[in-house]
Amino acid sequence: MSLRPHITFLTRLATFLPLFATIAAFGQQSAGTFRIAGSVTDYATGEPVVGANVVAYDAGGRPHGAAVGADGRFAFNCPTKAATLRVSMLGYRNETVKLVPGRTDYDIRLREAPSDVGEVVVTGFVDKKRESYTGATHVIQRQEIENMVHTNVLNIIQLQTPGFEIFDDIANGSDPNKIPDMVLRGRSSFIEGDQTNVPLFILDGTEVDISYVFDMPSDDIESISVLKDASATSFYGSKAANGVVVITTRPTQAGRLQVNYSGNFQVSIPDLSDYRLLNAREKLEYERQAGVYGDFTGSSNTDVTNQKSYYEKLDRVNAGVNTDWKRMALRTGFNHIHNLMLSGGSQDFRYNVSGSYNSTTGVMDESDKQTASLRINLTYGDMNKLFFQNIASLTQSDSNDVPYGSFSDYVSLNPYDRPYNDDGSLNSVLSFNTANPLYEKSLSSYIRNTSGSFIDTFRVRWNILKGLRVEASLSYTQTKSEGETFYSPLSQQFNNTIDANKKGSFDVSNGTTHNLSGNAFAVYNKAWNRRGGDASDLLSLTAGFNIESTRSESHSFSALGILSDKLEHPSMATGYAESRPGGSEDRSRMLGFYVNANYIWHNRYFIDLSFRYEGSSKFGADNKYAPFGSLGLGWNLHKERFLKGSAVSLLKLRMSMGYVGNAGFSPYQAQLAYQYSSSLQYNGGIGAVPVSMVNPRLKWERSLKRNLGLDFGLWRDRLNGSVDVYYDTTNDLVMDISKPAHIGFTSAKENLGKIRNSGIELSLRGNVLQRKHTNLNLFLNLSHNRNRIVEISDYLKNKNAENEANATSSLPAAFYEEGESMTALKVMRSAGINPANGKEVFIDRDGNPTYEYDYRDKYVAGDTTPAVQGSFGLWMSWRSFDLSMNFAYRLGASIYNQTLATKVEGASPTSNADRRVFYDRWKAPGDKARYKNIANRETTPPTDRFVATEYALEGSSLKLSYTLPDAFCRRLHLRRVRISASTGDLFNISTIRRERGLDYPFARVFQASLTVNL
Question: Which residues, 6 or more positions from 758, have their beta carbon under 8 angstroms from its beta carbon?
Answer without folding.
Answer: 726, 727, 728, 785, 786, 788
